[in-house]
Amino acid sequence: MTSPRFGVNYTPTRGWFHHWLDFDLDEVRADLDSIAALGLDHLRVFPLWPVFQPNRAVIRPRAVEDLLALVDAAGERGLDVAVDGLQGHLSSFDFQPSWTRTWHRRNMFTDHDVVDAEAELLRTLASALAAKGNFLGMTVGNEVNQFSSGPHPDPDRIDAAQAERWLRRMLQACESGAPGRFHLHAEYDAAWYQDDHPFTPAHAARLGAATAVHSWVFNGTAQRHGTDGTATRHHAAYLIELSKAWAREPHRPVWLQEVGAPAPHVPADRAAEFTTATVEAALDCADVWGVTWWCSHDVDRSLADFPELEYGLGLLTTDREVKPAGRALAESVERWRGREHRPAPRTTALVVDVGPDATRRSVCAPGGEVFEAFARLTAQGLRPTTVLSELAQDSRHLASRGITRVVLPAEVR
Questions:
Q1: For burial by CB atoms within 10 Å, which of 14, 104, 230, 261 has the most?
Q2: Quick one: CATH architecture of 5-336?
Q3: Which stretches does DSSP call E strand in 144-295?
Q4: Which UniProt keywords apply (predicted)?
């Protein structure tokens, strides 16, 4: 029997991710106690890149030791740990080391020396973690695709071929350090929605051990459809099913690796309801490895300059008190405990035509014909999935996914 995994992206209560500068294992243990009390089974953690590799030739042993101590403390509480490697970008802040910026400005995706150093950091972390029984695997980094194009104010521009070479090199470094673990990469939704973005849906759905989905309804979904709209409550499910259009394996795992309830798009008094609806909709999709909520604890308001919505995304307060969304997720965990995750096949597939080089991805974005047609079909009670236009008449492909009906977006009224 395979039950879905439930976890959380760990945001420390004391110092946020700056806690790596003054690592306090007792504070971490107290945080992990409050997470484990929700019934969750795993964490995703974020070593800050400049702290762990402040010079291209230096990976700090003490920082690696602190990471291992965190993983051990999680294991003592029955929590598995996935580790992101290149941080990268977190909650609107960029964390790139000084040896890639200003006077040392180099493209993080194509410069030979920088890429070698990135690969060595990932290999070193994976190797140090490989012996830990509760280590799940590496994610290359958190939404590092945002460094590759606009709207980032100073992007390291690349094309799709260069993005793929970089991803393959980083994933190989993870595998070299910890063979056979759950290594993958993760992008924010520009990979699915932005026409000219160099990280593509094919990269997301074909490279690595699973497809990672980051679902945020402040991307135009909630603004267009409202808190209670079908598209808003099913946004995570939509991204999961959209990813399957590009997957080569019919049962490739999909990890809902980030999803949260951002105010004011989801008001605080609706966060619990939104959490429950989002989780249940996501788990009505097949092949979901697990759901990992953003985030564990609120951001302390003594820290300055965060976007307002970032302060209150936690399942728990900075005093480690459970919030309504935390209780809702804990109830979902309890409902699914011991249950086999085997939803019925989605037999209706919406055709996705983004062009041969995925240059029309905006049809999949909020307001686009694919996005809106999916929402309308869902509102009608039809549990749609998606299929690429070039595969829409491939009987073998359709049969492998259980699809019996193919619908064009223009046909959905």
A1: 261
A2: Alpha-Beta Barrel (3.20)
A3: 184-186, 211-215, 254-259, 288-293
A4: Hydrolase
| Annotated domain spans of the chain | 5-336, 348-411
Q: State residue 229's pLDDT score.
A: 97
Enter the DSSP assignment of 386. Answer: E
Q: Would the CA dihedral through 119, 288, 224, 308 be positive or negative? A: negative
341: left (phi over 0), alpha (psi -120 to 50) or beta: beta
Tokens read off for 56: 């291209």
Which whole number is the average pLDDT over 40-57? Answer: 98
Residue with tokens 């429950």: 276
pLDDT tens for 206-263 read 999 999 999 999 999 999 999 999 999 999 999 999 999 999 999 999 999 999 999 9
Q: Which amino acid is located at 176 in the chain?
A: S
pLDDT value at 37 more than 90:
yes
Burial 152-189 (b: 16+ CB within 10 A, else e): eeebbebebebbbebbebbbebbbebbeebbbbbbbbb
What stretch of H or E contains 405?
A: strand 405-407
Q: Alpha-carbon distance 104 to 117, whole Å?
A: 14
Cα gap 404→390, rounded to integer Å: 16
Residue 48's φ and ψ, nearest 5 degrees, are: -70, 125
The pLDDT of residue 273 is 98
Task: Tell me the pLDDT tens digit for each residue of 73-85.
Answer: 999 999 999 999 9
Tell if the pTM clears 0.85, that is, is over it: yes
